[in-house]
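Work Package 3 (structural annotation) set out to generate three-dimensional models for the target panel prioritized at the project kickoff. During this period the team completed the workflow that converts sequence records into discrete structure tokens, so that structures can be stored uniformly alongside our sequence database. As a representative example, we reproduce one entry of 185 residues exactly as it appears in the project archive.
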Amino acid sequence: MPTLVHEFAWPDRVVVGTVGVPGQRTFYLQIRAAKKLVSIALEKQQSALLAEKIDEILDQLMTVEGNRYSVPASTPIELVDNDPLEPVEEEFRAGAMSLGWDPTTAQVVLEAHRIVDSDTENDIDLEFSDDEAASSEMLLVRMPVGTARAFAKRTREIVAAGRPMCPLCGYPIDPEGHACTIPEF
């Protein structure tokens, strides 16, 4: 069965954003190139790790002796994107993700694969349904270094904008309140 690939070689916009209120937010990775728009759902932890690893890749490239790539140390002001997400139509929920570097184009490469439903993974069926065919889907995004740096900055800010943390126990405080369960000594 062929894999459906949503590919963006030089996207106009690559952002992580959320829908919903803190504590009930859904995170989305949204990519646009001209009129093509794709949104995939992510977990908050996936978003945070994605920003961290992109910054690590870029920081490491800056330390390479004789580096011929112009990697910005911070987000170029012209690439700051604080606009909300465009209308979201979820293509799929991300499972496995990978990051890499393409030196031929000086781009960070992001792959996100559709999460596999563990309930159907164990079923053995010789015929493929439409749902099974759709499970072979992925996103492939190539980001120039400045765009990648701006993406990481925005993503960190979006992740941090969630529920405040309890100063006593370190768990998130829900809008309805918080029952701190500090063990007594």
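Helices lie at 44-63, 118-121, 130-134, 145-160.
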